[in-house]
Amino acid sequence: MADGGVAGTRGVSPTPERPAGPPPADARPAPSSPADVVAAAAAAPDLAALADVVTTCRACPRLVAWRRATAADPPARYRGQTYWARPVPGFGDEHAGIALVGLAPAADGGNRTGRMFTGDRSGDFLVAALHRAGLASQPTSEDRDDGLVLTGVRMTAPVRCAPPANAPTPAERRTCGPWLARELALVDPRVVVVLGGFGWRALLTTLDEQGWGVPRPRPAFGHGVELTLRRGDASLVLLGCFHVSPHNTFTGRLTPQMLDAVLERAKALGGGQPSSSAATT
């Protein structure tokens, strides 16, 4: 089977619960090296084209193997479902004032459903908060065809494939970096809410490469950290927030009230305003 979805077997007949998504990866040229990623990201004229090419990427062999192995041997509750098992594109408003930058898709979340922060507990926690903030049309994110619309906010990540142990290598982050850079350039947010230290470090690297005035030494991540960067006459505000992982939310390290406060601050700084065209790309 090409990278067009992988059915978890274990003796259960596949029962796809959603459309197949983009054409199989072998129907389009697939980026298969860091240089390919750089060229393909730069050539994407808009977010739809970027999403199409992101989903074909095979530039990190370890991640390709892991995303497919996870899909082929899922937990019991997902047996028989057809996993997305491809890189996951960004999702949300094409003209968002706020970008949400996480880490990478979850093995049985985004890697299963094909949408950022969808189908797992992290997504449940985050989307409920976005709904309370008036940025999401509904409080749940279960499936990429569930009708969720984000207004004024876009979800993305530095790494687009589910990594083993939720730990991409530095080389994988560097290889995947051009996808994030191109998405930010196309969206042009005013505020970025960064979920966790990995996303913070990866984002600062990307912004530094884009010519933003990232301080030296680079500011450390922390919940509630606020950093304003400038590039010519433009400014961009970064807001640090603990990641919405179950490890943080179940232990109370990150509470709904803490996340709500970060999102309200992002809105107050000029992000999250309704765009002329809320999108579900």
Automatic annotation (TrEMBL):
Uracil-DNA glycosylase-like domain residues are: 89-263
Q: Which BP terms does GO give this entry?
A: base-excision repair
SUPFAM superfamilies referenced in this protein's UniProt entry, alphabetically = Uracil-DNA glycosylase-like (SSF52141)
- A GO molecular-function term, please? uracil DNA N-glycosylase activity
Locate the compositionally biased regions of type Pro residues.
16-26
Keyword terms, alphabetized: 4Fe-4S, DNA damage, DNA repair, Hydrolase, Iron, Iron-sulfur, Metal-binding
UniProt-listed InterPro entries: UDG_Type-4/5, UdgB-like, Uracil-DNA_glycosylase-like, Uracil-DNA_glycosylase-like_sf
The record, for SMART domains, names: UDG, UreE_C
Region annotated Disordered, chain positions: 1-34
Q: Which protein family is named in the record?
A: Belongs to the uracil-DNA glycosylase (UDG) superfamily. Type 5 (UDGb) family.
Q: What is this protein called?
A: Type-5 uracil-DNA glycosylase
